[in-house]
Amino acid sequence: MIPASPLALDGWRHVYSGKVRDLYVPADTAEGASPAHLLVVASDRVSAFDHVLSPGIPDKGVLLTTLSLWWFDRLVGSDGGRGIPNHLAADHALEGDEAVELIPDAVRGRAMLVRSLDMQPIECVVRGYLTGSGWAEYQASRTVCGIPLPEGLTDGDRLPEPLYTPAYKAPMGEHDENITYERSVELVGDDTATALRDLSLEIYRRAAAIAEERGLILADTKFEFGYDDAGVLTLADEVLTSDSSRYWDAEAWRTGTTPAERMASFDKQIVRDWLAANWDKQGEPPALPDDIVTRTRARYAELLERLTS
Ligand code: ATP
Ligand code: MG
Predict the structure, then answer these.
(1) Cis, peptide link before residue 160, omega less than 30° from 0
(2) What are phi and psi of 122, to 5 degrees?
(3) Mutate to test the pocket of ligand 1, among 21, 37, 174, 223 (most ligand atoms within 8 A of CB)
(4) What are the residues facing 17 on neighbouring strands?
(5) Is the pTM of this model over 0.80?
(6) pLDDT (tens digit, 9 = 90+) per residue, 102-126?
(7) Model ipTM?
């Protein structure tokens, strides 16, 4: 299940590979000790339905890291909102920043140097629009993660207000599980659960407004947070990327008449849709055809271009 052997990087020791990212600690970190810093390297691997697919999407790791860094920068307060603390250990935009110099050339552009946090086991999902697993649950019970919703909504509709729908971040190899807010309180305590919810909704609202100025809908997204050494709840992981979020073209959404037209996506929905149509979810998934790879790469690149230029 855990993919390809990670790169050997001078000065760093590989400690973990998720479906998409490889984590390294400084090579001189004692076994079992918790390091101050981590190197998070985004590969070109793409996952869907909890499987890593092949081939990867060329340049995906660079595109997603560039986008994460851009969003972290918006959220430190440069959009006028309050600063959201993030896990970056250095100013990645700054030439000559000593910390950034620690990033090996082999992974420059696709790596983030971050502070190692005490990660909270909650995937903080915010949904502004109804689709995906939310739409599936709504059809069955008129709820999303147990939250009752009005009758008459269809796939891709805007929700009356953004919903915080947490998931339990399952240990490696297990599936994440949607949970109620009450369950998140049991898992991490009242104070942390409240802070995770409030921060997530605040970041979603700000990011959705920034996306809207660029003709994009941020339909939903997922954040992860951890506590730093000083006990500050800190935004971690990748943020507002096309892996962790659904982005649609706002004009297409307004004028489209079918779900496919309305949800013209800049994310890996192309991959999900192709896989859903070509795989019965038994055994290993089939290889992605070239045109799906090419189109996915183009959409990822277009999202970056539209947001950041
Ligand atoms: P999935 O493919 O479902 O996302 P995953 O989250 O385990 O699985 P990756 O996203 O590929 O895998 O790996 C990134 C890992 O790094 C995650 O476990 C994430 O929680 C962790 N992480 C991100 N930022 C930090 C940080 N600042 N300190 C400690 N761990 C972090
Ligand atoms: Mg992850």
Answers:
(1) no
(2) -120, 130
(3) 21
(4) 22
(5) yes
(6) 899 999 999 999 999 999 999 999 9
(7) 0.94
